[in-house]
Amino acid sequence: MDAIWWKTAAEEPVLDVAEFAPCDVAIVGGGYTGLSTALHCAQAGLSAHVLEAEAVGFGGSGRNVGLVNAGLWLPPSKLVKALGDRGEAFLAEFSDGPARVFDLIERHQIRCEARREGTIHAAHAASGMTDLRGRFQEWQRRGAPVRLLDAGEAAELTGTRAFAGGLLDARAGTVNPMGYARGLARVARAQGAKVSTGVRVTGLRRDGGGWLVQTAQGAVQARAVVLAANAYSDALWPGLARCWSDIHFMQIATEPLGDRAAHILPGGQGLWDTGMIMRSLRRDAEGRVILGTMGRDLGRVSRAWAARLLRRWFPELGEVGIERVWHGCIAMTPDHLPRILELDAGVYAPIGYNGRGITTGTLFGAALARVLAGEDPATLPLPLTRPEPVRFKPVQQRFHDLAFALKQLT
Ligand SMILES: Cc1cc2nc3c(=O)[nH]c(=O)nc-3n(C[C@H](O)[C@H](O)[C@H](O)COP(=O)(O)OP(=O)(O)OC[C@H]3O[C@@H](n4cnc5c(N)ncnc54)[C@H](O)[C@@H]3O)c2cc1C
């Protein structure tokens, strides 16, 4: 079940197992969090080794929509309220998040189809405009370059009359998500970090003042460990995966449509909507239309859902071939806030990005690297916290899966 990005990313995959020597920081997981931590550790003069069970970008980082968003899932005022004293500083940092990501891409010439034309949060119905108006006013008060779109402007920018309006955020943009992940791996290695793929970490054991990181291929001694497996965590740290709900998000990519689809998001923005069961829309560099919705890849059901939505939104396209269908797992926390967990002395686990991982993984990785290099943990975007299990996770999970599957039938 490969995402289309696994085929189209211009950056090369890493197919390597590096030498297992002692290091300052062992990193479990080769997504944005792990790779950004490794890159910034290497830049700070620390030796870092990323151990990835499958391939770079195998988790959310190689499967997502590629929306490089500013801020988090929550509107600014709710975020500030939830974070108290740290709220405004956090918001300012995450408001600049896309700029940090795009600067990194530019500086290291990461080939990931980066486009900085903004993103559109589209109103799935008139009711969605109430939320968008609130977000618009809050961001505008803070001086962010956002614009509220009426239904006519939304139709012009999206190529469909399906939306009641939208919020255009000029800070944001899009990337080929796997291109960005592989690019981070290339740059981290070039700066001296090690990246090993096909190496699953099977155990962590205290070893003097540090940790022994065990794998089937051998063990690595490390002063500190960053568990960067997020929604793709296995049983390595018991109980960790109970700290979020697994929300699946499914996408389809059409065949390349060339000029036939040039009127769809002609400005190059990516889009997600205000529906309870959120949908996404974008095009890739080769002219495919990529549609998404919460839920799993249900085979023929998902293909039929996509064909119906394409007919509804873009009837002028006529018959369209679907090249690929895939899904991925998002770690959603009950309060929609991410966490940086301290699991034990020297073991950190950033988790719960709630579908905002391109900026969050990049920024959290950089911030953790600074702390690992000796900075005060008070400088992290969030305080270090302990794991807290989500209540009734299995029940929630079943409810979500059922609701999302039913929605694909409509
Ligand atoms: C379908 C989908 C759409 C999304 N859309 C967006 C979007 O448009 N914009 C956005 O910003 N975010 C989006 N997200 C969220 C974003 O993709 C994630 O938040 C982000 O990729 C998380 O990165 P990460 O490095 O923390 O974890 P991941 O990228 O999930 O990486 C974790 C890695 O850990 C590895 N691993 C697990 N256990 C072990 C082990 N024991 N040993 C070694 N390795 C291990 C896994 O193989 C995996 O590669 C989306 C997510 C999904 C799934």
- CATH homologous superfamily, by name? FAD/NAD(P)-binding domain
- The average pLDDT value, as a whole number, equals 96
Q: N-to-C SSE series?
A: HEHEEHHHEHEHEEHEEEEEEEEHEEEHEH
Separation of the first and last Cα atoms? 24 Å
Secondary-structure-based class equals: alpha/beta
**Number of distinct beta strands:** 19
CATH topology: FAD/NAD(P)-binding domain
Based on the coordinates given, report the CATH architecture.
3-Layer(bba) Sandwich
Discrete helix count? 11
The percent of residues in helical segments reads: 25-40%
Oligomer: single chain
Tally of structural domains: 1
CATH top-level class: Alpha Beta
Q: Percent of residues in beta strands? A: 25-35%
Bound molecules: flavin-adenine dinucleotide
Report the sheet with the most strands, covering strand number, pairing sense and barrel closure.
Answer: 9 strands, mixed
Rg on CA atoms, Å: 21 Å
* Low-pLDDT stretches: none
Silhouette = globular
Structure explained in plain terms:
With 410 residues, the protein is of the alpha/beta class. The protein has a single domain (4-118, 171-398), classed as FAD/NAD(P)-binding domain, CATH 3.50.50. It is 31% helix and 25% strand. It contains eleven helices and 19 strands. It has helices spanning 4-8, 32-43, 76-83, 87-95, 97-107, 128-141, 151-158, 177-190, 300-313, 357-372, 393-408; strands spanning 23-28, 48-52, 67-68, 119-122, 146-149, 166-169, 173-174, 194-197, 201-207, 210-215, 218-227, 245-254, 270-273, 279-283, 289-294, 322-332, 339-344, 347-351, 384-385. Strands 1, 2, 8, 9, 10, 11, 17, 18 and 19 form a nine-stranded mixed β-sheet that branches. Strand 1 (23-28), helix 2 and strand 2 (48-52) form a beta-alpha-beta unit. The radius of gyration is 21 Å and the shape is globular. The protein starts with a helix and ends with a helix. The model has no long low-confidence stretch (mean pLDDT 96). The structure holds flavin-adenine dinucleotide.
